[in-house]
Every structure is written in C-alpha cells, then in structure tokens.
Amino acid sequence: MIYQEMLTKVIEKLQSQPDYGLTKEQVVQSRQANGDNQFVEPPKEGLIKRVLRSLSDITTIILIIAAIISLITTVIQGHGDYFESFLIIAIVVINSVLSIVQEGRAEKALDSLKGLEREEAKVRRDGDIQFIPMTDIVVGDILVLENGVKIPADARLLTTADLRVEESPLTGESHPIEKDEDFITGEQVPLGDRRNMVYRGTTIVNGRGEALVVATGMNTEMGKIASLLGREEREMTPMQKRLAQLGRQLTVVAIIAAIIVMILGIMQGDPLMELFMTAVSLAVAVVPETLMVIVTITLALGVQRMAARHAIVRRLPAVETLGSASVIASDKTGTLTQNKMTARQVWDATTDTIMAVDEAEALPDALKFGALSTNVTEQDGTLAGLPTEMALVGGIGGYSAYEALQAEYPKVYEIPFNSTRKRMTTVHRVADGYLAITKGAFDVLLPKLPLDLQERAKAVNQTFGDQALRVITVAIAKLPTLSAEPTAEELEQNLQLLGLVGIIDPPRPESAQAVAEAREAGIKTVMITGDHVATASAIAKEIGILLPTDKALTGAELHDMSDAELDDTVQDYAVYARVTPEDKIRIVKAWQKRGDIVAMTGDGVNDAPALNAANVGIAMGQTGTDVAREAADIVLTDDNFATIVHAVEEGRGIYGNIRKTINFLMSANMSEIIVIVVAMILGWGSPLMAAQLLFINLVADGLPGFALAKEPPHGDVMRDKPVNPRASVFAHGLGLRIAFNAILFALITLAAQGYGVYTDNNSAGHTMAFIVLSISSILHVFNIRSDASMFRVKFSANRSLVMMVLLSLVLTILVVTVPVTQDVFHFMPLTVGQWLLTIILSIIPNIIWEVIKMNNRKIQ
Q1: Quick count: other Cβ atoms within 10 Å of Cβ 354?
Q2: Is 787 known to be catalytic?
Q3: DSSP class per residue in 188-220
Q4: Cα–Cα distance for residue pair 763/756, rounded to 1 Å
C-alpha cells in the first residue's frame, strides 16, 4: 500500500500513464525539460593550446632565448652566418612536434559511453509498443523490459515477473539482482540494493517487466559516472615531475654560469658580441636537447614489449609510472576473480561428506539433480542462463552431460523460481513414476527438510557461508503419480535432502601468485569492490590480500568517515566493500595523499572514474566495458592479473633506462658548462661554439642515447622497492655519478685545449677539445649500461647500441675531416700525433670506470 502511494505520486509528477505511455506532446515537453538521453562531452584542448603548452617547458624556453640572442648577434655583426640560429630553432620545433605526437589522441571515455546510445529501446507511447533509439528516451517513458535487453535509462519498476538484472558493470555485484517492484528503499541504500530500480547500461538476464523512466542522460547513474570522468584531471607522472624539476635546476645552472662568464669576459675586456655568443653556447650546453625525445622512444619501445606480454598501453607516461607503483587497488569481480559463478563445494547429505567439486570421485546426487533442475541452454558453444544454474551444469561436466541427464530424466513439469518463493521445482519422468526436484535458498527450504538433518544442515550452511559461498539446497520427492495441474504443496512435501552446493565466483588461478610477487616487490595490493564485504573478504583472504593485520571497510562505514579520518587510516584496510564509484575515487586519493603511486584495476563502468583518478588505470580487455577501457591508461588483453606484475617489471626496467639516459646526457652537458666556464677563467676563451655543442648533444650523445632505450634490465628489478615519487631524479647516487663524470670529461677536454694553448695552436686545441669531448661521451655509454664491467655485459644484448656508437664515431670523424663541415663548424686538420693524443685522452674515462668497478667487486 505504501509503495503504491509513493509510486502514484511519482507517476503523477511525471505526468505518465503506465497503460498508455506518453503522448507526442508530452515527449517534446519532457525532452525540453530534462534534455536528451545522451552524455555531455567536456571541451577538448585545441591544437594551438597544445602547441603553446609544449613550448612552455623551461628547457625549451632557454633554447628559444638562445636562438633569439644568436639571431640578433648575427644581424648586428652582419656576417650572415645564421646556421646556429636556425639549428637551435629546428631543435625546438622537432621537440614540440614530438611532444604533441606523444600525447596521442585525446580521451575517448565519453565517446565510448555514447556507444551505448546507438541501441534501440522498447517503450509504450500513445498506447502502442514502439522501438525507438536510446537517445530518444525521455523522463516519463514506459520501458518494456525483456530477457537480454540492455536498459536504456534509470527507471522505477512498475511490474516484474522473475526479473533479474546483471548489474556488475555498474555496481560490481558478482551475480544478478532479483528485482521487486514492491521493494521500498531508504535514503542511504547502496545502488546494488535498490531492488525497485533498474539502471542504464545494465542487462536483464531473466524475466520481464515494465518501468517508468525517472532519469536520462547525465542525470542517470551512468551519467554521473560520465561527469566524474570529465571532471577528473590527471596529475603529472613522477617522471614528468622529475624532468620538470630538472629543467628548473638547469635554468639556475645556466643563469649562474652566464653571470660568471659575463663578469669574467668584461673583466678580461672581451668583445660584447663574443660574450653574447658564449652565453648562447652556455644555453645550448645546459639543455639536453635529445632527452625528451629519448624518453619518448624509451617509453614507446616499452609499450611494444608490454604489448607482447598482453598489456596495451594507451598513454606513454603510464609505462614509467607503473614502474613506480606502490599500491595496486584492484576490483574483485572479473579482475581478481573469473566473473563466472562456479560450483566449488558439495555436502552429500546421504553420506554426510563435504567434498570439493573438482576433486569428487563420483558425481554427488545434490550436484547431479541440482543441475538437472535448471533451464540452461547452449549458444555457440557457450552456456546461457542464470549464473547459478550455469554453475551447477558446469559442475557436472558441461552441456553434454546436462543433455544426457535430460534424456535420462525427461522434464514434464516446472514451477519456476520467483523472488517470493525463492525456490524452483521441476518434475521428471522415471521408471517407477515421477521425481520432483526442488532447489532454492537454504532458509526457505529448511522447514521442509527432515528434522533429523536440520541441525547438521545448519552447520554445513554456516561453514559454506564463512567461505562466502552462495548455498543452493537440493531436495527430491518421489511421486508414483502426477495430477493434471500439480501444486507446490503436492510436489514439495516429504522432501528427501540430497545436500547443499556451495557456489562462488572463484579467484583467477594466477591471482594469489601475482599478489605475492607484488608484495615481494614492495607493492601493497588492496581490493576495492561493490560486492558484499563477506564475499570480498573471503576472496581477499584466499589470494593473500587480506592478511591477519589488515581490516575490511564497508561503503556505509566509509560514508560516516571524513576525508581526514580516511586519510589517517586508509593504510589499515586491505578490502573496501560495497562501495560506490565516488567512494573508489576517495580511496584512491587517500592513498595518493600518503605519497603512494596508485595503479587501479577494473572492468566495469563503475570502475571508470577511479581508473581515471588513479596514477595508472588498468582495465580488463576481454571482460571490461568500453568505458573502463577508454578511461584506463593500460588495457590487459588477457584479463590476467599476473600481467600487471609483468607490466610493473617492464616499467621498472624503463625507469632504469631513463635514469641511465639522464646519466649519459647530463654528464656531457654539465662537462660542457665546466669547460666553458673554466676556459674563460683561465683566459683561454671558450673552445666550443653553439653549433659544435649541438652536434655533440644531438649526434655524439643523441644517437647512443636512443639505443639506450633498448637496453634490457640488468639484475632482478622486482626485488627492489618502488621508487619514492618524491625522490629527486638525481637520487640514489645518480647526482654524484653525473658530477664525477662531468669533472672527468671536463679535465680531459681542457687538457686537449691546453695542448693548443701551450703549443700556440689554439685552432688545433679547439678541434682536439671537440673530438675528446665527443668520443669520450660516446664511449661513456658502455660505462653506464651496468654496474658490472663493460666487458661482462654482452654487446649482443643490445646490438643497436653498438651500431649507434659506431655511427656516432664515424660521423664525428667525418665532421672534423671533411673540408665542407670543417668550414661550417670551424675545425682544422690535425696531425697524426695530435690524433693519437686525442684518442688517448678520450678513452681515459672508460679506463677509470673499469678500475672503479673492479674495486667495487672486490669490496662486495
């Protein structure tokens, strides 16, 4: 009565008629008042804005200023040599283009949501049943719901007949929800418990009904998720933050060096134009022009390797970020579990034996006759029907075994399951009469069971419940005859209990091992799910997520917590159950506030906002929805949780290669600054021009640096702890190594220039300085491949590196020996003795590093 009064008010408010539907005029009015049944797409960033953003990087600004100074100086001097200016500008343009290409396509999460709108819906309008596009649905429409139909809008149920809806894409619920039009909800009832409602994007798997549309478009629960996707902004990845910090540090270095050079030059009476050109050289020296390009290539190659291991990367920075992940927040259904209800345990009441289904020597009667009393069909080799019934049929060996049972025990009558009876009874013909099989909920069938078995049955039911198993009770009654219209009372009396079947959505076989491997790598795995806390906790314990020291938190408990309380206690919980999409975002952000890098996995629409908010969103490719896949950074093509661990390993290898690249490039760049400043202090003048420095940075450093992207990991990177996202790019001794290398390179380069000064042949000294810095930088790539000797790491492990080193050496020799390039870069031919001294100086860093590594091995 209360429900009817409430429903009448809703119908009157929406001016709808359940038996007639809306009129054409009412449809127009409703659309004007509530909008179309589609999602609003947020504005996308334009090309011009993306170009300007790519040019706003601090190192790019330094190059632009250097190009302007070089251009002005050239114009003032009037010698017409614009080579340096145009070369610097070309580098800026190339880096900008690569930056834009790296970003790829804009987010398509809302486009994938729109894909749902192309389907048709069945409605009642003007007294007739009509099929209309989903986008034409309006508030007040009467939906006609049938088995297999995808629901086009949020609606209040008017009538139901055995209606069950698959809501896992929206709520994470692992089994279909029984709907009841008479159910009355409270104000804080979770989405999955609102049995008098159906929601857009979910699917009817059984029964039929009619419903009154109460929300369309952005006002639906799916629309709210769409608004969350559009509202969340992605933070910079740890490496992007580190590179931005590096750019700021390089700016400070460039300014200080320029001030020193200008002061020294003025004191020494050097021409102002010459000092300006030296400042340009410093700006070029301080910027590692190929760093961002090499980082992009490193990430792109990592993407290819991850694709071969069933992980498709949609956004390049996610590869490196995943390597820094310290928390994996995983959905349960379809991610850690198989999203397939499976018969796991059987209690045989006749022998009082509990057995695992896959270990049973003979088929227990409870499972055999429970499977017989179903309506499962087969479509294209795949079982179709209610998940619990498919679990029973799967437990007896599949559809062929089910067909054999049907042939042996032909079904002649059925009293179907409904939400009131909570049981189903089928009648089968046997040799001596008929066999009635009743299966259903334990609490409903318990009063009908033999008294002597009820206590034992209660104990087994409790045992199964503690394991989060969904219990199906199976009983039979033998009938000598059957009336024309059998009743439930006739068929369901004098029942003989066959036993209980425990059903669950089981964990994926590889989940437990993957969780253990993640823990060994210093990564905490937590479960965030819309399922019930008992089910979630049982699965989490089984696969090693919920340890004795961990707790479980429900959505209701979470709602009572402030953000500050959650931030303080989030690390205490390993399971977050019965949570909403908004709750998942709160949890992810709480972990992030602790400084953790969060990788969020999921497959449903309800997971999409959290996937978008996480540092790395990981979606399932096979069972995942389009929305989840488009909101994610990485998509697993095999839906294998273990693939995440492989991806973390790949990400850590990539991060290691990026650090090696920074070591390689910055060692040369910092040495260039030291050389220029020290040479100015000594009164020798800068031995390196801007164009020469660009050649070193692009060719001598750039080409081998590109090959570093293909360097395989050395050692077991999964035994290391996750990289602290707050750690500097120079952490763990990298800064000291770069400083040591820079001083070493600077000393041998200044030695070459000093040779020219003291032999009164400055041109030869400048040429030798260029060659020494170029060759020593090129050969340095072998020093940083590994902490082991360069001769202990197989050159065949990275053939590209060897090829790039040889190419760089050849190009360096050509540029100083070919007359045309000699003139452009201002070099002079060297004698045999000068070449010999140059080569000896160039290999000194490699000799020193081999000695250092040898001593380190002795200490270890």
Answers
A1: 15
A2: no
A3: T--GGG-TTEE-TT-EEEEEEEEEEEEE-GGGS
A4: 7
The pairing of strands 598-602 and 616-620 is parallel
Look at residue 107 in the predicted model and tell me its pLDDT: 41
Q: Which of 551, 453, 526, 459 is nearest to 496 (CA)?
A: 453
Residue 35 makes CB contacts below 8 A (sequence gap 6+) with 216, 217, 218, 219
- Count helices and strands in the chain by DSSP H and E runs: 33, 24
Q: What is the rounded CA–CA span in Å between residue 262 and residue 676?
A: 12
The predicted-structure confidence for 398-413, as pLDDT tens digits, reads as follows 999 999 999 999 999 9
Say if CB 700 and CB 707 are below 8 A apart.
Answer: no
CA 354 to chain centroid:
41
Catalytic residue among 57, 141, 270, 331: 331
pLDDT at residue 116, as a whole number: 41
C-alpha 777: how far from chain center: 37
Q: How many CB atoms lie within 10 A of CB 335?
A: 30
Q: List the Cα angle 738/742/746 in 5-degree steps.
A: 175
Query: Which DSSP string do the residues of 749-807 spell out, in sequence order?
Result: HHHHHHHHHHTT-HHHHHHHHHHHHHHHHHHHHHHSS-SS-TTTS-GGGGHHHHHHHHH
What pLDDT is recorded for position 69?
Answer: 65
Task: Evaluate whether 773 touches 671 at the Cβ level (below 8 Å).
Answer: yes
Q: Give yes or no for a contact between 525 and 648, defined as CB atoms under 8 angstroms apart.
A: no
CA angle 504, 507, 508 (to 5 degrees): 135
User: Could you say which residues of the chain have pLDDT below 50?
Assistant: 1-2, 102, 104-117, 232, 859-860
CA distance 402 to 417: 19
Helix (H) or strand (E) holding 470, with range, is strand 470-479
